[in-house]
């Protein structure tokens, strides 16, 4: 099975993880459609919702956690930009493009704690879920090479409620972080 197919099959699991992160108690009914296995949320009160970002945004509204979509017009735009990046670049990248994406993220995160502003957003959660398998497979030297991504990832994996059933990724703090900054 291709890397791309594995990621898309994983989107249903990522939506379930997001439900837990948001504190939604009743699991939603999901299906997939088409050859690309696009997630679909079956709704009792209206038409089905299609696509990872559409469904994730809906779940945020259902949980009454709209601050995760951004607290200002600018932050909402940046959140949407990263959600689009996740779907158009990360989810469709080849194995050879992974390092390019990590390099782009590493540069962007050089002076940032979160992807969009000064607080945790849906962009951080979905990027974390999308990149988890990539970071897990990185060797220590690669984690050091992408220091800002590794720092961001470690911060997000320890954010309350985010990780749930995903395995923790070990970050060697004595090598990745300067001494005294844990």
List keywords for this structure.
182 residues, 3-stranded antiparallel beta sheet, 53% helix, disordered N terminus
The residue fraction in helices comes out at 40-55%
Cα-to-Cα separation, first versus last residue: 39 Å
**SSE ordering:** HEEEHHHHHHH
Strand content: 5-15%
Strand order of the largest sheet: 1-2-3
Please give the radius of gyration in angstroms: 16 Å
Count of beta strands: 3
Q: What structural class is derived from the secondary structure elements?
A: mainly alpha
Unreliable segments (pLDDT under 50, ≥5 consecutive)? 1-9
Bulk shape: globular
Main sheet summary: 3 strands, antiparallel
Number of helices: 8
Global mean pLDDT: 87
Could you give a quick summary of the protein structure above?
The protein has eight helices and three strands, in the order αβββααααααα. The chain starts with a helix and ends in a 6-residue tail after the last helix.
List the helices and strands and how they pair.
Layout: H1 3-22, E1 29-33, E2 38-42, E3 49-50, H2 52-62, H3 73-90, H4 98-108, H5 122-137, H6 140-145, H7 147-157, H8 173-176
Antiparallel strand pairs: 1-2, 2-3
């Amino acid at each position: 099975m291709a890397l791309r197919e594995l990621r898309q099959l994983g989107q249903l699991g990522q939506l379930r993880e997001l439900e837990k992160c948001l504190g939604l108690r009743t699991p939603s009914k999901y299906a997939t459609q088409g050859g690309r296995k696009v997630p679909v949320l079956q709704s009792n009160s209206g038409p089905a919702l299609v696509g990872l970002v559409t469904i994730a945004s809906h779940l945020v509204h259902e949980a009454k956690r709209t601050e995760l979509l951004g607290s200002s017009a600018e932050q909402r735009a940046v959140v949407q930009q990263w959600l689009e990046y996740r779907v158009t670049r990360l989810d469709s990248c080849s194995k050879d493009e992974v390092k390019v994406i990590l390099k782009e993220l590493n540069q962007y995160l050089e002076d940032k704690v979160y992807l969009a502003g000064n607080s945790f957003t849906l962009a951080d959660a979905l990027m974390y879920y999308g990149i988890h398998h990539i970071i897990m497979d990185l060797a220590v030297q690669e984690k050091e090479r992408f220091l800002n991504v590794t720092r961001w990832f470690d911060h997000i994996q320890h954010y309350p409620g985010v990780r749930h059933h995903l395995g923790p990724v070990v970050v060697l703090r004595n090598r990745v972080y300067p001494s005294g900054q844990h």
